[in-house]
UniProtKB/TrEMBL annotation:
Entry-linked InterPro entries: DPNP, Inositol_monoP_metal-BS, Inositol_monoP_superfamily, Inositol_monophosphatase-like, Inositol_monophosphatase_CS
Recorded superkingdom: Eukaryota
EC number(s) stated in the UniProt entry for this protein: 3.1.3.7
Biological process annotations from GO: inositol phosphate metabolic process; phosphatidylinositol phosphate biosynthetic process; sulfate assimilation; tRNA decay
Keyword Magnesium: yes
Protein source organism: Capronia coronata CBS 617.96
Similarity section: Belongs to the inositol monophosphatase superfamily.
Pfam families linked: Inositol_P
Protein name per its UniProtKB record: 3'(2'),5'-bisphosphate nucleotidase
Record keywords, A-Z: Hydrolase, Magnesium, Metal-binding
Catalytic activity of the protein: 3'-phosphoadenylyl sulfate + H2O = adenosine 5'-phosphosulfate + phosphate; adenosine 3',5'-bisphosphate + H2O = AMP + phosphate; adenosine 2',5'-bisphosphate + H2O = AMP + phosphate
């Protein structure tokens, strides 16, 4: 099957990076990482980016990476850099065979910094380019709520493989979303899901942990968007941060569509995963600031996973997201993800609300 190895590498790399992010969160909880509230994000972001790029470059040396982070600031903060290195050097998957597939450990702190800087591709519509968000939903991560480790392979401008590791979402696809989904999630059993898709091959979910190249594939389930026919019954997912997506517009659109349920707020591409598995029905992200341009790493994996699960993803003009224009989605404003059968109806309501402003 096409992109089999890419999918396997992406899944294992995301799973390994998610282990690091969880370790950082637990260190933070113990107070050993830093008293500075922001540093757990920095540590997790840089560490996860290093681990994932190392795995990509080991398996596909000539591929490029568009990564959210670059290491120049880190090179000047020796203490932070060595804290990250101390975590990164010890992170392993349960299964040695899978670790070996990812290329074994990074050899030194200096090499780690160089690897982080390999995420500097300009993007574009030629060749093989991975889009990486090591910790998407940084605010959710800090809170112990929803965040995602996101990786997608874009070939000649088209997303071919997408993987989302969501450590704080329930494993069970049928578990309904709750209003406090975005608040601190317990780290209890039953949490941590990996969403994956390959273009033309459908979308799946599986537990994020206890998996490896040598284990069988039990736990891998095909996922589908909800079978909603009456859009007034929809559960809408939206950002937590009011600055990232317009809550006021969402409320007006919901009213127009007759939706009475309160929206579920959660950070990160966990929203795309939730729509893809039918736990939520719609994801609306309407621009707050006209000048904000969305980043490809915030959408590439989620876009493919929702589409392969039977959904449609467009901007507010009804156009597909264009991942072939560089590091940002320069031609798109806003995002509407919905089951294919109701997408046009939702888009119409979105446009009516935006045009009436
Ligand atoms: N002004 C504005 N408008 C839209 N989007 C923005 C804006 N500013 C930032 N970002 C990006 O939003 C990413 C997080 O989006 P979420 O939907 O997860 O956010 S949240 O629930 O609103 O926090 C977030 O990703 P992370 O930085 O990885 O968390 C940013 O890339
Ligand atoms: Mg992000």
């Amino acid at each position: 099957m096409a992109y089999e190895k890419e999918l396997q590498v992406a899944q294992l790399a995301v799973a390994r990076a998610a282990i690091l992010t969880k370790a950082v969160f637990h260190e933070k909880a113990k107070g050993t990482v830093s008293k500075d509230d922001k540093s757990p994000v920095t540590i997790g972001d840089f560490g996860a980016q290093a681990l994932i790029i190392a795995a990509i470059k080991h398996n596909f040396p000539s591929d490029e990476v568009v990564g959210e982070e670059e290491a120049s600031s880190l090179r000047e903060q020796k203490d932070l850099s060595s804290t990250i290195w101390n975590l990164v050097k010890d992170v392993k998957l349960d299964d040695p065979e899978s670790d070996a597939l990812l290329g074994g450990p990074i050899r030194s702190e200096a090499e780690m910094l160089d690897i982080i800087d390999m995420g500097n591709s300009a993007g574009g519509n030629k060749g093989r380019i991975w889009a990486l968000d090591p910790i998407d939903g940084t605010k959710g991560f800090l809170r112990g709520g929803q965040y995602a480790v996101c990786l997608a392979l874009i070939v000649d401008g088209d997303v071919k493989v997408g993987v989302l590791g969501c450590p704080n979402l329930p494993i069970d696809d049928r578990e309904p979303l709750t209003e406090d989904m975005g608040a601190a999630a317990s780290d209890a059993e039953g949490k941590g899901v990996l969403f994956s898709a390959v273009l033309g091959q459908g979308a799946t979910s599986q537990p994020l942990t206890r998996r490896g190249a040598s284990t069988d594939s039990t736990g891998v389930r095909p996922i589908h968007v909800s079978k909603i026919s009456d859009v007034s019954e929809a559960v809408m997912c939206e950002s937590v941060e009011p600055g990232h997506s317009s809550k006021g517009d969402n409320a007006l659109i919901a009213e127009k569509l007759g939706i009475t349920r309160k929206p579920v707020q959660m950070d990160s591409q966990a929203k795309y995963g939730s729509v893809a598995r039918g736990a939520g029905d719609l994801y609306l992200r309407l621009p707050v600031r006209k000048d904000y341009i969305e980043k490809i790493w915030d959408h590439a994996a989620g876009d493919l996973i929702v589409r392969e699960a039977g959904g449609q993803v467009t901007d507010v003009a009804g156009n597909r997201l264009n991942f072939g224009l560089g590091r940002t989605l320069t031609e798109n404003k806003g995002v509407i993800a919905a089951p294919a059968n109701v997408h046009a109806q939702v888009l119409k309501a979105v446009q009516e609300v935006l045009n009436s402003k």
